[in-house]
From TrEMBL:
<keyword id="KW-0418">Kinase</keyword>
<dbReference type="GO" id="GO:0005737">
    <property type="term" value="C:cytoplasm"/>
</dbReference>
<dbReference type="GO" id="GO:0016301">
    <property type="term" value="F:kinase activity"/>
</dbReference>
<keyword id="KW-0963">Cytoplasm</keyword>
<dbReference type="InterPro" id="IPR016152">
    <property type="entry name" value="PTrfase/Anion_transptr"/>
</dbReference>
<keyword id="KW-0762">Sugar transport</keyword>
<keyword id="KW-0808">Transferase</keyword>
<comment type="function">
    <text>The phosphoenolpyruvate-dependent sugar phosphotransferase system (sugar PTS), a major carbohydrate active transport system, catalyzes the phosphorylation of incoming sugar substrates concomitantly with their translocation across the cell membrane. The enzyme II UlaABC PTS system is involved in ascorbate transport.</text>
</comment>
<feature type="domain" description="PTS EIIA type-2">
    <location>
        <begin position="4"/>
        <end position="150"/>
    </location>
</feature>
<keyword id="KW-0597">Phosphoprotein</keyword>
<dbReference type="Pfam" id="PF00359">
    <property type="entry name" value="PTS_EIIA_2"/>
</dbReference>
<dbReference type="InterPro" id="IPR002178">
    <property type="entry name" value="PTS_EIIA_type-2_dom"/>
</dbReference>
<keyword id="KW-0813">Transport</keyword>
<protein>
    <recommendedName>
        <fullName>Ascorbate-specific PTS system EIIA component</fullName>
    </recommendedName>
</protein>
<dbReference type="GO" id="GO:0009401">
    <property type="term" value="P:phosphoenolpyruvate-dependent sugar phosphotransferase system"/>
</dbReference>
<dbReference type="InterPro" id="IPR051351">
    <property type="entry name" value="Ascorbate-PTS_EIIA_comp"/>
</dbReference>
<keyword id="KW-0598">Phosphotransferase system</keyword>
Length: 152
């Protein structure tokens, strides 16, 4: 799946100093916006869902999976993008603070594709040491080295 991000030009290393989770979600959606896979309606929907339901998108320490429902009007295709923030972004939650530096943003046109994306991403993130290796990257070249190391 690391190759999927690379082959589809869905990797972005943010240079911005982002501290607000809303800005981080917007930043993580930028590639999908640029490719016209989603529009601003979907970005606003993700932010609204986090405001309503809490930091459910922080799925494991250091990793967020911004997404909304599979029937969103602002989704025109199916894709996942990878964004690494410059520094961890804090999310408030009932369990205290959570933070994420890696953002895997999902967009899907239907429920089956939505669930397949979540499953594929979950399997990827269970790879021993992968999250730490991705956190340590700061460029596309370093990402490629991780991609070759894990052959994913």
């Amino acid at each position: 799946m690391l190759k999927y991000f690379f082959d589809n030009d869905l990797i972005y290393y943010s240079e911005r100093d982002i501290t607000d989770w809303r800005d981080a979600i917007s930043e993580s959606c930028q590639l999908l916006l640029d490719k016209k896979i989603i529009d601003q309606i979907y970005v606003d929907e993700i932010i609204r869902c986090v405001e309503e339901h809490g930091s459910y998108i922080v799925i494991v320490p250091e990793v967020a999976m911004p997404h909304s429902s599979e029937d969103s009007k602002g989704v025109f295709g199916t894709a996942i993008s990878f964004t690494k923030m410059k520094q961890p972004v804090q999310f408030e939650s009932d369990e205290g603070e959570k933070s994420a530096i890696l953002f895997f943003t999902l967009a899907a046109k239907n429920a089956d594709e939505h669930m397949e994306n979540i499953q594929n991403l979950s399997e990827l993130l269970m790879t021993d040491g992968l999250i730490e290796s991705l956190v340590a990257t700061n460029s596309l070249e370093e990402y490629q080295a991780v991609m070759k190391e894990y052959d994913l």
